[in-house]
From TrEMBL:
Stored InterPro entries: NTF2-like_dom_sf, SnoaL-like
Coiled-coil blocks: none
Bilayer-spanning residue ranges: none
Domain of life: Bacteria
Residues of the SnoaL-like domain: 9-102
Protein name (Swiss-Prot/TrEMBL): Nuclear transport factor 2 family protein
Length: 117
């Protein structure tokens, strides 16, 4: 059985490489996402949001990942085009091998400023 930490690692690798088929397979159909730049309900909305961020994503630099039986917190720098890296915390809840909830916290001001130029 795949652990929540392994699922989280696969999630970030798939997002960073643009492998949205793998990413979709890690999400529960009713996944709920809340982040600094929006909210998504359901896997298709979540994938659409991740694709959107993927257009400006340069890389993800993971610094730490802490997990228990159902929850994973990943601390990373979000590197995007034209903005300084954004220190970011991502909490994911995993049930039956799928991510069911995602919460992301970071300061989006530089990313938003870059996008408005």
């Amino acid at each position: 059985m795949t652990t929540p930490a392994e699922i989280s690692e696969k999630y970030f690798t798939a997002w960073e490489t643009g492998d949205f088929d793998t990413l979709r397979g890690l999400l529960a159909d009713d996944v709920d996402f809340v982040g600094a730049l929006g909210r998504a309900r359901g896997a298709e909305e979540c994938i659409a949001g991740l694709r959107g961020m993927g257009r400006i994503l340069e890389r993800i630099e993971v610094h730490a990942r802490v997990a228990d039986d159902t929850d994973v917190i990943t601390w990373f720098d979000l590197h995007t085009k034209g903005a300084a890296p954004a220190p970011t915390a991502n909490w994911s809840h995993v049930e039956d091998g799928k991510i069911t909830r995602i919460r992301v916290a970071f300061d989006p001001r530089e990313i938003l400023a870059q996008q408005s130029r």
